[in-house]
Specification:
By secondary structure, the chain is α/β, with parallel strands linked by helices. The protein contains 15 helices and 20 strands. The structure holds ligand NA7. Ligand NA7 is lined by residues 142, 148, 181-187, 206-207, 326, 347, 352, 375-378, 490, 495.
């Protein structure tokens, strides 16, 4: 058994873990990182399915901590593909010599706090233990994949594929009969490309998604140069805005104040720009049901306009409030259903009975398949943490503390787990924001907290339970002011059986959240305890 001491452990080598390692090292701390994959990349390492792309624009979805890096790197498309983002992260790892801090192919199984030594023992799945004063969980919000335990799955003779664990060497589905289960972002991105290869594609849909066209395109040097010339100012605008994205914040106007014709024109304009910015055309789309319905109807009209078979168009048309489940961004998704080789199965009308040796039995019939693709999502925001045996002061298990739902102060620490940090944890903007901006903000916040603790000679940081309680209530109160809690979604934990139903991210806006954190820091890290 290999046991050694370091100042800090970082779990995960995605966007968050790489920058955390960089930042801790810059403080002069020794860093041991762990990563399950065999290289850096995190979500962009695992999700290699055809069509995998970011739905935030490349020039925005990138680090800002190094002006040289942001000037050097050239993006080829408006919305980058997974391979390009992975190359970017590999470049970052090389440029800043970060790989040497990480042990790859290594899953962290446990992290236990020792009240006497005030250090964490971090244990890998192979049984190695590292002792650290600080632990940073950079484990991702959408990294704990879910594969539903369908009856008969083990009997299936065809190939089983999972979007979030797509084989590195790729898969040729030419001429095959393929089924896809799941119509969230991953399903919507891969379905059009699989349809081009497969002899026949059957999509098994339980809940339809609202999706806006990406209108993706190559980035010209001129477009890229124009952004780069103003990068510091633009980054500042994005960071301090509500959405943290380039399409900007909604005007402070209700959708219901506009006439039907004005609304239509405003939606159409944002629709034509591409991406999910259309959700922010008016201030009250995710707050007021009647306002929401105007956009929902606009999107349903676009679906009906695109899909030639009205029955299929109707099946594809969601009825829940738009935005309350992640709005997708697609290329040719709805039009794919006009292809003669694609069938959409509505699992609510024809329930999935079982997987068989030959395919899938739904309702009264069996669909024969050579390959079955699972695009069935993640145990979001808390899943990666709850899969690690984390025990804090007094041996308290994190999963026990969070039995009724996660409790964090500013999404970064949870009381009773000293010196343990999460990046973009529950109660922070995380999945409702440009993740890279939120990651940088949290890493910089942790950096300041640690510098303060070390300067003061108080190397144990914890959270006041009352501060945590106030924050959890505040996060919930803002969510209750919106339409989100009324819809079953992974934002609410509804996609995982037995998971507490709590709105996981902070919906008060990225800029306001940053301002609040800055004020907490300026007040001497109000709500934190230094010992
Ligand atoms: P999502 O958005 O959680 O989508 C998962 C899909 O899988 C969704 O349509 C689910 O239907 C469906 N699903 C899950 N389990 C089943 C079973 N048992 N039977 C049928 N259908 C099922 O995950 P994605 O990977 O697409 O996207 C996650 C995020 O990653 C995305 O929002 C971006 O932020 C990046 P359901 O809704 O449960 O009826």
């Amino acid at each position: 058994m290999d046991m050694h001491n370091v100042d800090a452990v970082v779990v995960g080598a995605g966007f968050a873990g790489l920058y955390a390692a960089y930042s801790l090292r810059a403080q002069g701390l020794s860093v041991q990182g762990f990563e399950t994959g065999d290289d850096v990349g995190g979500t962009w390492y695992w999700n290699r399915y055809p069509g995998a792309r970011c739905d935030v624009e490349s020039l925005e979805y990138s680090y800002s901590f190094s002006p040289e890096l942001e000037q050097e790197w050239q993006w080829s498309e408006r919305f980058a593909t997974q391979p390009e983002i992975l190359r970017y992260l590999q470049h970052v790892a090389e440029r800043f010599d970060l790989r040497r801090h990480f042990r790859f192919n290594t899953r962290v199984a446990a992290a236990h706090y020792d009240d006497v030594t005030q250090r964490w023992a971090v244990t890998t799945a192979a049984g190695d233990v590292v002792s650290a004063r600080w632990v940073v969980m950079a484990t991702g919000c959408l990294s704990a994949a879910r594969l539903p335990d369908l009856p008969g799955l083990s009997a299936f003779k065809g190939r089983i594929l999972q979007t979030s664990h797509w084989p590195k060497e790729g898969v040729d589905l030419t001429g095959q009969r393929v089924g896809v289960i799941g119509t969230g972002s991953s399903g919507l991105q891969c379905i059009p490309l699989i349809a081009q290869q497969a002899a026949r594609l059957t999509v098994f849909q339980r809940t339809p998604s609202y999706s806006a066209p990406a209108h993706n395109r190559p980035l010209t040097d001129a477009q890229q140069g124009a952004v780069k010339a103003q990068y510091p100012a633009l980054r500042q605008t994005w960071r301090s805005s509500f959405t943290s994205c380039g399409f900007g914040d909604p005007p402070p106007v209700s959708a219901l104040q506009a006439t039907a014709a004005e609304r239509e024109a405003a939606y159409q304009q944002r629709w034509d720009q591409g991406g999910f910015g259309v959700l922010f055309t008016y201030a009250d789309i995710v707050v007021d049901a009647a306002a929401n319905d105007t956009l929902a109807q606009f999107v349903r009209d676009r679906i009906r306009e695109t899909v030639t078979d009205p029955v299929v168009a109707d099946r594809l048309s969601p009825r829940y409030a738009v935005g309350t489940r992640r709005m997708c961004v697609d290329t040719d998704y709805y039009a794919t259903y006009n292809r003669p080789n694609v069938e959409l199965v509505d699992l609510r009308a024809e329930p999935l009975q079982a997987v068989t040796a030959e395919g899938v039995r739904i309702g009264e019939r069996e669909v024969a398949l050579d390959a079955l693709v699972f695009a069935t999502g993640f145990d979001a925001v808390t899943g990666a943490l709850s899969r690690i045996d984390i025990r804090g002061a007094g041996g308290q298990r994190l999963t026990d503390k969070w039995a009724e739902g996660p409790r964090m102060y500013l999404g970064v620490m949870t009381a009773g787990f000293p010196n343990l940090f999460a990046i973009t944890g529950p109660g922070s903007p995380s999945v409702l924001s440009n993740m890279v901006i939120s990651i940088e903000q949290h890493v910089q916040f942790i950096d300041g907290l640690l510098r303060t603790a070390r300067m003061q000679g108080t190397p144990v940081v914890d959270v006041q339970p009352a501060a945590e309680e106030d924050w959890v209530r505040h996060v919930d109160a803002i969510a209750q002011h919106t339409l989100y809690p009324q819809t079953a979604s992974w934002y609410m934990g509804s996609n995982v059986p037995g998971k507490a139903r709590i709105f996981l991210p902070y919906i008060g806006g990225v800029g306001p959240f940053r301002q609040h954190c800055d004020q907490v820091a300026a007040d001497g890290y109000r709500g934190f305890v230094f010992a």
